[in-house]
Amino acid sequence: MTDSPNDVTPDRLCKADALPPSDQHAQQYAAVRNAHETELLEDYVELIADLLEHQGEARATDIAARMGVSQATVSKTVTRLKALGLVSSKPYRSLFLTEKGEAMAAMSNQRHAIVLQFLRALGVSDRTARIDAEGMEHHVSQETLDVMQRFAREQERRDA
């Protein structure tokens, strides 16, 4: 494999890129910790919203199947979502999103769509873009999302 001038490897980064100032470094790690805290919750409310939209109901069994987790895991997470005021349910009925849950789902869905559109505009295959977008959507700033969206739209215009 040959080295091209565009290859980014650790030895090609400048010293400042490798170790930013401590306050910036701390902000980077804080942002990642915060994203990890909300990541699972966002995934659940986004899936519940999708199930309600496309199937008319969001049952724990469907969530477990689509998330690849056990019913017990879903039950534990749904209990947490209820405590946070994101989800409600009635006995023997499916799950429902509260206004707060709907707002979170809409925001998460929008972030996901932007990242997915961006990856596709870069030429990433649909399958890989879907997998990568699922994790990336939680870890990008609004500034980065805005740039991704602008790039994808410009790419679409060029391709049209």
Describe the structure in your own words.
There is one protein chain. With 160 residues, the protein is mainly α. 70% of the residues lie in helices and 4% in strands. It is built from seven helices and two strands, in the order H-H-H-H-E-E-H-H-H. The protein has helices at 15-18, 22-55, 60-67, 71-83, 99-122, 126-136, 142-159; strands at 87-89, 95-97. The chain has a two-stranded antiparallel ribbon. Helix 3 (60-67) crosses helix 4 (71-83) and helix 5 packs across helix 7 (142-159). It is globular. The two termini are 35 Å apart. The relative contact order is 0.10. The model has no long low-confidence stretch (mean pLDDT 87). Residues 38-98 form the HTH dtxR-type domain. It comes from Billgrantia antri. This is Transcriptional regulator MntR. It is found in: Cytoplasm. Homodimer.
Q: Helical region count?
A: 7
Low-confidence stretches: none
Strand content: under 5%
Radius of gyration: 19 Å
CA(first)-CA(last) distance: 35 Å
Q: Tally the beta strands.
A: 2
Shape: globular
Major beta sheet, specifics? 2 strands, antiparallel
Helix proportion:
over 70%
> What is the string of helix and strand elements?
HHHHEEHHH
| Order of adjacent strands in the largest pleated sheet | 1-2
Main location: cytoplasm
Domain HTH dtxR-type: 38-98
InterPro entries: ArsR-like_HTH, DtxR_MntR_Metal-Reg, Fe_dep_repressor, Fe_dep_repressor_sf, HTH_DTXR, Iron_dep_repressor, WH-like_DNA-bd_sf, WH_DNA-bd_sf
Pfam families: Fe_dep_repr_C, Fe_dep_repress
